[in-house]
Amino acid sequence: MLLHSIDEVREVVQKWKTEGYKVGLVPTMGALHDGHLSLIKKAKSICDKVVVSDFVNPIQFGPNEDFDKYPRTLDTDMKLCDEEGVDIIFAPTPKEMYGEGQRLSNNTLTYVCPPFFYVNTLCGKTRIGHFDGVCTVVLKLFNIVQPDYAFFGQKDAQQVIIIKKMVKDLNVPVEIIQCPIVREASGLALSSRNKYLSEEGKKDALVLSKILNNIKECYKKGIVDVNALKETAYSFLTNKHDMEYLEIVDKDTLENKTAADDNSIALTAIRVENVRLIDNIYLGE
Ligand code: AMP
């Protein structure tokens, strides 16, 4: 069932709740691929009813980011959701979510602002306000759907950590389930933004998973010094790659480390053909 209005979603979910159903929410920005479908499948395996939100959230995009050109494929998304047995696709307009005139405005909307430490590192260093926009829309979705479980991908590892923190700090009654990264056979992590890449760009984009796998191999061989591990990455880069960051931090708290351990995660953001790609790997698994 495709629903566009908050009231309709609330009505259907309230009915489910009175019938005792466990409800799962999978927040997405649409342009669904197998990564999203893995979250939906996990939700179907745990919950009686599954809501997928399909909303390109304007307030998490910076002024020079790709909000306008972000792929929007609602018809295909609906078919995929039907095949997976999704109960509701919630596809609101920005106006339904934020009312009039609030797009990208900090002055007319109550925002959820996670602690500075969490948002001023990794992706947050260049994407100013991004995680405020993410947390704001996710909390709104939690309040609209009131799910028992919500499903997020490790692909956006910093995002899940920040959302878990928000849920804990604000006592939101939802359990966050994190799902593993789905990759192409080549190793490239699936992403809606891969659509922007040429065939050659997709090959160049393999550098992200290569760097991360190499760091993990070196760690498994006994190299723990974070700087030494990061050094191993640079030989993979060519002039096709514009690295924004490569960090090895604690997988639960994002705290910096000087020596990697089994609780570490290596994360990177690299631009290829001016498309910003992110990927990460747990060193301990
Ligand atoms: P997005 O539509 O990009 O906002 O992503 C919606 C959700 O799907 C987020 O929780 C992402 O982390 C997750 N996701 C995106 N790509 C992947 C992937 N390759 N594997 C697993 N989860 C993913």
Question: Can you put this structure into words, describing what you see?
Answer:
By secondary structure, this protein is of the alpha/beta class. It folds into two domains: 2-179, 3-Layer(aba) Sandwich (Rossmann fold); 192-280, 2-Layer Sandwich (Pantoate--beta-alanine Ligase, Chain: A,domain 2), CATH 3.30.1300. The chain contains eleven helices and nine strands. The strands form two sheets. A six-stranded parallel beta sheet has the order 1-4-3-2-5-6, with helices on both faces. Helix 7 (130-145) crosses helix 8 and helix 10 (206-220) packs antiparallel against helix 11. The longest helix is centred in the middle third of the chain and has 16 residues, at 130-145. The protein is globular. The protein starts with a strand and ends with a strand. The mean pLDDT is 96. The structure holds adenosine monophosphate. Residues 28-29, 35-36, 38-39, 152-153, 155-156, 179, 181-182, 189-192 line the site of adenosine monophosphate (AMP).
Features:
globular; 38% helix; alpha/beta; single chain; 19% strand; 2 domains; 3-stranded antiparallel beta sheet; 285 residues; 9 strands; Pantoate--beta-alanine Ligase, Chain: A,domain 2; binds adenosine monophosphate
